[in-house]
Amino acid sequence: MSDHFKLQVPGATAAGTVNVTAPYDGELIATIETGDAAAVETALSTAYTLFNDRKNWLTAEQRIRVLEKTTDIMQSHFDELAIEAAREGGKPLIDSRVEVARAIDGMKNCVEVIRSSHGEEIPMGKNAASMNRLAFTTHEPIGVVVAVSAFNHPLNLAVHQIGPAIAAGCPVIIKPAEDTALSCFRLINILHEAGLPKGWCQGIVTDSHDSATLLVTDKRVGFFSFIGSANVGWMLRSKLAPGARCALEHGGVAPVIVAADADMNDTVALLAKAGFYHAGQVCVSVQRVYAEKGIARQLADSIAAAGNKMKIGDPTLSDTDIGPLIRHAETDRVQQWVQDAVDKGAELVSGGQKISDSCYQATVLFNPPEDAIISKNEIFGPVICVYEYEDIDDALSRANSLDVAFQAAVFSKNIDTCMYAFRQLNASAVMVNDHTAFRVDWMPFAGLRHSGHGVGGIPHTFEDMQIKKMMVIRSMAL
After folding, report:
1. Which member of 33, 99, 249, 388 is catalytic?
2. Hey, is 310 helix, strand or coil?
3. Which CATH number belongs to the domain containing residue 216 in this structure?
């Protein structure tokens, strides 16, 4: 029997419903009420009214209490949340459990950033103009936060957008991905159970793109948080109301440099996991590996062998390593891109076939040509490309050749090689002897160039969702 989720906008009337089905087998999981332009207006009006009532802003103590209670409730529903994320998003249960643990830790981080938040003194009395003055800053919420989220980490991404907004004292409205809205809606319900007044966190799946655009571009929006495709993110940013700030997180084609002296066993294990994890549907998933010629083919064969050992199938089973892609059309697209690379001269080392309408084999390609679709675009599927190089500068030039820049990596036992790659790679973060998908939720996480705008990570988002407000006191006693 499927669940039914109501529109998370107090006072709004549903426009209809959508079905949420399991990407693995198409089973109906739940129905969700959708909201139209009228529901969007209700959500924005509620949030904006709360923000404008400064006398009734949530105090830091209230926000801490709600967030601490939220972590307790999430912990008590740990298994339920993990299974929900695995069913609706297709991420294997072993990895969905990690996601829930991260989400709980993220909420704890939101408490920590409230406790450590403080202003600063601005120097005065340093010249004639600043004599007899004292100045300092405080922090205030930026305004109504509107968040649009992606499908691939349905709980943890919602935590990264909702949690800092609540911590900063902002009313927040979130539109989760239609395919994976259940984890987000459960999180909203938990927040309300923890004592957060309903108007301070609202959730809506819109009935159309037009309704979603109305939500994002309204002049009452103070901050827009977006996680998703670059085309949609940049389009929505171009339509924001004057003064609205934003953060955009898109994808990348995370490059990896592997020198001949790298620890092969360690490198293979890390690259295989980070490339095939969640069927490659991660914005910093390992896709392009540039390996020194002497070890390139061995590396490709070893990654292929590791992938061949991974169990592909039902994501709700504890022994599944690779689950389905989010939609059948994505499985077909991955197949087309792999075939395009093979037709243009790439060697298919392993995989290369659909297992079902929803699942695709762990695939390794060797030396795809530069004009292959997969060499120029984010595959977002379980495919790793290994390219051989003789000159590291050539590898770095190829790694930097695209208009995306996010996280990158270098594997070598030589510190000079690692430092050289760090300096030369176009990336916001370079992992040394670790994979490109490494992340802890308090570190800065930023896509550069076409990959995004602003800096993610809970403390950084918390800061973005506030303004610094300065007080200058003039007193002859100073």
Report:
1. 249
2. coil
3. 3.40.605.10
Number of domains, the chain: 2
Domain-embedded: residue 23 = yes
Indicate which CATH number applies to the domain containing 400: 3.40.309.10
Q: How many whole angstroms separate alpha carbon 379 and alpha carbon 361?
A: 14
Q: Is 283 a catalytic residue?
A: yes
Residues contacting 193, CB < 8 A, separation 6+: 69, 73
Q: Which of 16, 7, 6, 5 is nearest to 207 (CA)?
A: 16
Q: Are residues 105 and 189 in the same domain?
A: yes
- Read off the tokens for 431: 């992992």
Instruction: Look at residue 217 and tell me if it is in a domain.
Output: yes
Catalytic pick among 283, 359, 385, 418:
283
Alpha helix (H) ranges present in 344-476? Answer: 373-376, 392-399, 415-424, 458-464
Could you tell me if 381 and 353 are in contact, meaning their C-beta atoms sit under 8 angstroms apart?
A: no
CB 120 within 8 A of CB 458: no
Give the list of residues 6+ apart from residue 326 with CB closer than 8 angstroms, or none: 23, 89, 90, 151, 152, 179, 180, 281
175-to-14, 85, 88, 319 alpha-carbon distances in Å: 15, 17, 16, 32
Q: Tell me: the pLDDT tens digits for 198-211?
A: 999 999 999 999 99
Same domain, 64 and 195: yes
Q: How far apart are CA 348 and CA 368, in angstroms?
A: 9
Per-residue pLDDT tens digits for 321-378? 999 999 999 999 999 999 999 999 999 999 999 999 999 999 999 999 999 999 999 9
Give the structural domain span for 336: 255-432
Indicate the pTM of the whole model: 0.94
* Beta-ladder partners of 364: 350, 384
